[in-house]
Amino acid sequence: MQLTLKVWRQKDSKAKGQLETYKVEADEHMSFLEMLDVLNEDLISQKKEPISFAHDCREGICGTCSLVINGRPHGPQQGTTVCQLHMRSYKDGDTIVVEPWRSAVFPVVKDLVTDRSAFDRIIQAGGFISVNTGQAQDANAIPVDKEDALEAFDAATCIGCGACVAACPNGSAMLFTAAKVSHLALLPQGQVEHKKRTKAMVAQMDKEGFGMCSNIGACEAECPKEISLENIARMNRSYIGAVFTTD
Amino acid sequence: MNWIVNFLTSSIGRKLIMSLTGLFLILFLVVHLAGNLQLLTNDGGEAFNTYAYFMTHNPLIKFISYGNYFFIILHAVIGILLYFKNRKAKGSSYAVSGSSDETSWSSKNMALLGTLILAFIFIHMGDFWFKMKFGNMPDVMSASLGVPVKDLFTRVSTAFDNPVLVIIYLIGQVVLAFHLWHGFASAFQTLGLNHPKYTPIIQGVGKIIAILIPLGFALIPTLHYLDIYLF
Q1: Residue B36 within a domain
Q2: Residue B100 lies inside a defined structural domain of this protein
Q3: N or C: where does chain A have the smaller number of CB atoms within 10 Å of the terminal CB?
């Protein structure tokens, strides 16, 4: 299949980028990233600069790939990352626009690669359990309600790719932060530091300069792991509660 | 005291202010509508003018009305601040805007809708409140109170003979409907109230009031223009 690609090219974080047009011959069995590999091989053979894009596992679990395809983070498919998007979703002759995540907090490093270290700093602010857990315990030593376990697991599937921020018209990181707060808050081991954690992570999120949630729901719609807005409500009430009940 | 400032300037704190002031203003709209529907009574303004006298002379109502002005201003100011903060956080926009059907147009245009509502409030208060308070509006005898009261009813009735003003008021109500379409349910999400059990109810109620409140208000200029009374 013959495709026309319009790809965001930007030399470095300071340069002014622009969309450049390329023709690529793709196979319907290729993944979207393999199609970009083919285009890059072609560019290299022509002694041109290949397109930089972030990728790692290509199995949909690492959260590294991060492309906005025709205006949608991770492309048109519901609940998948770009690496799990295949060219059979497109027709011969299609024009596809590929852009990086857009957020003032995720500056473009080069072409389609953005710096998402703000997420790491939110985790560093408190997205962990700081006690030494020692040996793995017997599975039933700490009783956990099945419903809570399932909800915690759903929140824990967040891969921290940043599609929520990319999709949000406000550039808010609430869905990511809420998922990270929730998966620990729902389990007994996470309860101990819960209030402190929520306050610290929200404070760091604000400090990074992310926008403020106005409950549009674009994040939930584009999230490759389909993290629910219920997590944001949980973080809202946890945060409000924590502010009034801690020093 | 530092913690209060930190809380109210945090992202969730600011959203909480938006949520609480928004819910208060919805409550105000309900009361305002209930009172103003008396404009549709065919009694030469007796019921409405007596009501308007009560609303401007009762000390408790006066106290709440100052709170109401304050909350309108607070809701508007924080809303505008959030808009600019969010625009800065977003940075540049996409060359192509993708369509996700799950987000409503209202939710993405709350700042625009809110600004139009604020403009409407200024026009509306200029038309009636300002003229009643600072203009020389003639008095009329209230039969039930036995004292002269401002004849606001005639002022409203004459104002709505002007088709341009009627159209402005109808547009104002459409804008309000879109603002409430997202605003009501969104306020509960911000408060942290989201559960599969009751969230569909909140969303349903939000959509019903987003239609009923503006529809009720729209009746007043429309029926006055057509000289139709309901009661």
Answers
A1: yes
A2: no
A3: C
Instruction: Using CB atoms within 10 Å of the CB of residue A23, give its burial: 0 to 12 exposed, 13 to 18 middle, 19+ buried.
Output: exposed
Do A28 and A105 belong together in one domain? yes
- A79 in helix, strand or coil? coil
* Residue found under tokens 């006298």: B53
- CB spacing of B15 vs A214 below 8 angstroms: yes
pTM score of the predicted model: 0.92
Q: Do A60 and A167 lie in a common domain? A: no
Q: Which two tokens stand for residue A241?
A: 């509660």
Under 8 Å between Cβ of B181 and B106: yes
- Whole-angstrom distance, CA of residue A191 vs CA of residue A193: 6
CB A104 within 8 A of CB A167: no
Contact status of B186 with chain A (Cβ, < 8 Å): yes
Residues 81-110 of B with CB under 8 A from A: 82, 85-86, 88-100, 102-104, 107-108, 110
Which positions in chain B touch A239 (Cβ < 8 Å)? 10, 12
Over its C-alpha atoms, chain A yields an Rg (Å, rounded) of: 20
User: Which among A82, A110, A138 is the end of a domain?
Assistant: A110
Q: Nearest residue on chain B to A95, judged by CA atoms?
A: B96
Per-residue pLDDT tens digits of chain A, which is 247 residues long: 999 999 999 999 999 999 999 999 999 999 999 999 999 999 999 999 999 999 999 999 999 999 999 999 999 999 999 999 999 999 999 999 999 999 999 999 999 999 999 999 999 999 999 887 778 888 788 889 999 999 999 999 999 999 999 999 999 999 999 999 999 999 988 999 999 999 999 999 999 999 999 999 999 999 999 999 999 999 999 999 999 998 7
